[in-house]
Design brief:
The chain is an alpha/beta fold. It is 45% helix and 15% strand. Strands 1-2-3-4-5-6-7-8 form an eight-stranded parallel β-barrel, surrounded by seven helices. α9 links the parallel β7 and β8. α4 packs parallel to α5. The chain is globular and about 40 Å long. The chain starts with a strand and ends with a helix. 42% of the residues are buried.
Length: 234
């Protein structure tokens, strides 16, 4: 079985992140580098994690005018990342240009194109949050609308809450890769994630990849926690 666990390196320094990455590498499928670590450590952290042989999911959620996002994606490809995120709410042209940039830059660099993942609705959002920012206060409908827009724009993957996976699998092409944050084992304290499932539940619903942060990095033994989660999926 392909290891579907993407361990989030949600740590403030490169030294802490690399120590965790070295500990977890045999037990996970990839590492997520997000805004906190990337802002602290810079692009070099991607190279240092890649040097361990691990795949990298660069989760910066680009959202800007199409040309700016396309250039950011090109830079990400040259960093040799395997996944990168953009916001689907940036619109169809932004998404098309991002995917085209990934393909063209990868071809020029002699690399495989990373999976450009469209973020639908953040897992910290609920109906109240959507209403507050002027969207239809129905999370499921908003997710499906943005997911369809992503498909029509040529994206090959999405980031979505585990609670929307089943509905999305009914309307999306079977080849669409679904990357799912909001994974909790049930042993953690309540936090800002409002729409969650366990790892096994998410995979059974149709997820391809699980982004797991606090249940691993905040555990007393992160390696044992990752191995326990992987074992629960078999």
């Amino acid at each position: 079985m392909q290891n579907p666990i993407i361990a989030a390196l949600d740590l403030p320094t490169a030294e802490q992140a690399l120590k965790l990455a070295q500990e977890l590498a045999p037990a996970v499928g990839a590492f997520k580098i997000g805004k906190e670590l990337f802002t602290s450590a810079g692009p070099d952290i991607v190279k240092r994690v890649r040097d361990t042989g691990a795949s990298v999911f660069l989760d910066l959620k680009f959202h800007d005018i199409p040309n700016t996002v396309a250039k950011a994606i090109a830079s990400a490809v040259r960093l040799d990342v395997q996944m990168v995120t953009i916001h689907t709410s940036g619109g169809s042209k932004m998404m098309r240009d991002a995917e085209q940039s990934a393909q063209q830059t990868a071809s020029q660099s002699g690399r495989n194109a990373p999976l450009v993942l469209g973020v639908t609705v953040l897992t910290s959002h609920d109906a109240n949050t959507l209403a507050e920012i002027g969207c239809e206060p129905n999370v499921g409908k908003q997710v499906e609308r943005l997911a369809q827009l992503a498909v029509n724009s040529g994206l090959r993957g999405l980031v979505c809450s585990p609670l929307e996976i089943t509905a999305l699998r009914q309307i999306l092409p079977a080849t669409m890769q679904l990357v799912t944050p909001g994974i909790r084992t049930g042993a953690e304290k309540a936090d800002d994630q409002k729409r969650t499932l366990t790892p096994r539940e998410a995979m059974q619903a149709g997820a391809n990849w699980l982004v797991i942060g606090r249940p691993i990095y905040a555990a007393p033994n992160p390696r044992a926690a990752a191995e326990g989660i992987l074992a629960s999926l078999r």
